[in-house]
Design goal:
By secondary structure, the protein is α/β, with parallel strands linked by helices. The protein is 46% helix and 15% strand. The chain is built from eleven helices and nine strands.
Length: 219
C-alpha cells in the first residue's frame, strides 16, 4: 500500500504542467477563480488550507467546475488529510515530510505529495511510499541546480517533483525541461490582490501565459 498517484492523475498534471496554488479568503470567489484558470488552460489546482474558506471552496469547485482537478495543500495534520479526502480532494500536498500525515493519507487512500528540501527528506518520503514530492521552497533552496544534485541518488526509483517557491513565468520553462519535474506549483497565477478585486480576466491571461510556456516546452 502506498500513496502513489494514479497514472491518469499523473498524466493530467504533467499535461497541464502548472498547478495553480490558491489561497482563497472568500468562498464566493472559488468558482469564478476556477473558471478563470480553466479558461486559460489550467485544469489543476491546489487549494491551500491557510484560510477557513478552503474546504467549502473545494466542494463548490468540485460541484460547479467538474473539469477542474482539485487537490488540497498545506495539509499539516492527519485530521486535515481526512477533511480534504471527505471534501473531495483528488490529492493532497504538504510543505514538509510529516510521517504521521503520510501514514494517514495511505490509510484513507489519498494520493499525497509531501514536501522535501534535503536528501534526508527524500529518503524518508520514499520509505513512506511516496514517489511524487513537492520541492519546497525551490528557488530559495538553490533552484533546479540544487534539485538535480539532491535527487541524483534517487532517480532510479522513479521519483518526480513539483517545485514551488520562487517559480514563475520567467523561469518556468527552465524547470519544465527537467525530466524529473512533473509539474510546477503556480502560486503566481492568482495573486491575492487580483482575486480580491475580481480580476478574472487578468487571471485567465496569467493562466494562458503559463499554458503557452508548457506547450512550447512540452509539445
Amino acid at each position: 500500500m502506498n500513496t502513489a498517484f494514479p497514472d491518469n492523475l499523473r498524466l493530467q498534471l504533467r499535461q497541464t504542467g502548472v498547478i495553480a496554488v490558491l489561497m482563497i479568503d472568500r468562498v464566493e470567489d472559488a468558482v469564478p477563480l476556477a473558471q478563470a484558470l480553466l479558461a486559460g488552460g489550467v485544469n489543476g489546482i491546489e487549494l491551500t488550507l491557510r484560510t477557513d474558506a478552503a474546504l467549502e471552496s473545494l466542494r463548490r469547485i468540485r460541484a460547479e467546475v467538474p473539469e477542474m482537478t482539485v487537490g488540497v495543500g498545506t495539509i499539516l495534520t492527519p485530521k486535515q488529510a481526512n477533511e480534504a479526502k471527505e471534501a473531495g480532494a483528488s490529492f493532497g500536498v504538504a510543505p514538509g515530510m510529516n510521517p504521521r500525515v503520510v501514514a494517514e493519507a495511505i490509510r484513507i487512500g489519498l494520493p499525497f505529495a509531501p514536501g522535501v528540501c534535503t536528501p534526508t527528506d527524500i529518503e524518508i518520503a520514499i520509505e513512506a511510499g511516496c514517489r511524487l514530492l513537492k520541492f519546497f521552497p525551490s528557488e530559495p533552496s538553490g533552484g533546479l541546480a540544487y534539485l538535480r544534485s539532491i535527487m541524483a541518488p534517487f532517480m532510479h526509483l522513479g521519483v518526480q517533483f513539483i517545485p514551488l517557491g520562487g517559480v514563475g513565468a520567467g523561469n518556468a520553462a527552465h524547470y519544465l525541461r527537467e525530466p524529473s519535474v512533473l509539474a510546477l506549483g503556480g502560486s503566481w497565477l492568482a495573486p491575492k490582490e487580483i482575486v480580491a478585486r475580481g480580476g478574472w480576466d487578468v487571471i485567465t491571461a496569467l493562466a494562458r501565459e503559463a499554458t503557452d510556456i508548457v506547450k512550447q516546452v512540452r509539445p
